[in-house]
Amino acid sequence: MKVTRKQEKIVQRTLEGWRQEGVIDAAEQQRLQQNLSVQLFDWQRMSRYAFWVALACAIIAIGSLVADEYLMELLFNFGYVTRAIILLLISLAFYFWGFYRQKQTPDKRYSNEAILFLGVLFTALFLWQLGMALDNGSGNAAPLLLFGCVIYGVIGYLGRSGLIWIFCLLALGSYFGTSTGYASGWGAYWLGMNYPIRFVLFGGVLLAACYLLKKPLQQRNVFAVSKAMGLLYLFIALWILSIFGNYDFDIWQSVRQIELLHWSLLFALAAGACIWISLKTDDGMLRGFGLTFLGINLYTRYFEMFWDGTNKVIFFLLLAISLALVGRYAEKIWRLGEK
């Protein structure tokens, strides 16, 4: 069995634990250890990273092309509708190619997903040109974002691609923000809520839907991504809410810090709830989000309350000591895990 060095250590610790508990004897432990073959180089991870870098370079290249008016005129010297049709055909070609390769060579997961992702990029360009063609001066881009969300959702779900599913959820969040902004006349409030509160609700609903649809999402390998995006929307919105509250920016500048305390407490309660649920269910993602954003909450309050009234030498000295204590505690946990 081929394993990485990290996996070898885990397997060896497991076998040693079983031997000490009497599940297997020393001879059986030795026999099982001999079946391990350590990979000196993790080619699978290298493949994943290489495709990520390649896709990042492709994004930069396409972005540079779009920004270059001369090249755009040279390559796409057509009207908006014609450009949109050409870009749609290119994106469809990448989607068909990606799905065909998934059927023929399902083991080439990273290259197949990279091809589908190129279709996502050209779909975004198609929607941009389509929006330019249909622009009537209203400034309402929400329908295009919803259209993109549907396309990415179908491709990500059928292609079992967590990467493309992320773009579906990003487009969904953009649609929600744009549609509520347009409905409020691009003011600060929609139904009495500013943007942070809206996205707290959005993240909560997305997280609830993720758990309600857990089984089909797991079957398509997009449950973990959906849960992570729901938590990300929720906690980033709670963090911003704990700083600004339900106030417009102009009003917020004159608001006393004590008037925002209840939002900070809500932020802390949400993080604490995540940690508590993770201890009950052994959910590493919930534990990570809870601990991370609890720390962000504490340090944000620290900066808010003590930045102006504390000498900067003392301020950063206390900050350094607190971070060192956190690091020491994390190191202790890591060393216990290694043992």
TrEMBL record:
Spans traversing the lipid bilayer: 49-66, 78-98, 110-128, 140-158, 163-183, 195-213, 225-245, 260-279, 286-307, 313-330
Keyword Transferase attributed: no
Swiss-Prot/TrEMBL keywords: Membrane, Transmembrane, Transmembrane helix
Domain of life from the UniProt record: Bacteria
The protein's name: DUF2157 domain-containing protein
